[in-house]
Amino acid sequence: MISKKWRIFICIFVSGICIAMNQFKLIPINQELMASMSLSRTQAGMLTTAFSISEAVIILPAALVLCRLRERATTLLALAFALVGTVMGGFADHFALLIVSRIIEGAGVALIAVVLPTIPVRYFSDGEQGKPMGIQAGYISLAVLLIFNIAVPLKNLFHTIKSIWFFTGALYVILMLLVFFLVEDSGQQEDERPRYGAVAKNGIVWILAFCFLGIGFRDLSYTNWSADFFKEVYQLRDAASNLATSMSYAGLWLGSLLSGFLFDVGIKSEHLITVSGGCLIFLGIWCFTIPIGLIIPFMLVTGFVMGLGVSCVYMKASACSTSKSDAAFAVALANLFLYIGYFLAPTISGAVIDTWGWTADTYAVEVGSAIILCCGLLLIIMEQKRKNIN
Known about the structure:
By secondary structure, the protein is mainly α.
């Protein structure tokens, strides 16, 4: 029988996956959306950018919301934002209204992004946190994997791209009921506010934040457009292109899961981040020249390598905080920089592709990988200095 802590974790984890589907649901239908609303690739990128702006604005206050409302109410609030934005987007018939719906959806993702990474710390003991942390670190990956592989079948089944909005809306209603009846707040009441100044003075937190910026920028500089690239250059069909792109996120979740287990057995997170960044630089060379027969294994390996660093950021951010309130703010700050990466990548890479073509986007991809590598090296240097002092 599933224990209470795992039941709560699963409910919030599944909610996180479904809410995160909002962020990526436009990518599998980019071309159809651009055609139906007469959008340029830069405008299509702005839809993702607007979403990320909303996340960036909400993410830091979300830490305070979590401390005040606790886990259950904050998750319900995140689902409510996701539902309202989804319904509005489903009925949007022009670009401006769709932008507004993306902003509302982004608020829901920001809230769940603070709740979910803190669940292992709040409900599990110290020796048990690595596994749930590794599992939850891949919730975005699983969201992308799902939406990339159900978007086109839903569109074909109901003969409209808007079926994706109404499908996710139904999921949010069901999840709100499940969370309401099955989730209980953790037993530790938090009267204290996060110590914003203390967290902001922690150099490790800032390095982790920049690492997430690199991960977000590297991720969407490539995967935001890879499905379109596979369709245009390799002439793959919609479903095949989306499947190939989703393999990156399947690999990312597996990498996150493995790093959670490695963390529990004593492997240092800074070493995993450094390995991740170095391998991503190497793999990035072939982003737009990989032979067609190697697309799926290439995407799997690329995602797996990136995933090694993702859960390490969450674990390190929580571990270097002295209280659960501070940990929530440290996670929020790291996620803020992830969203800055998500905010910058689609617009910059979309403009690069429109101006210089597909292969020029390799430079944007490699910038993100280099940031990850540099952050990993800085963490190793700081850890070595700390040991020398002690």
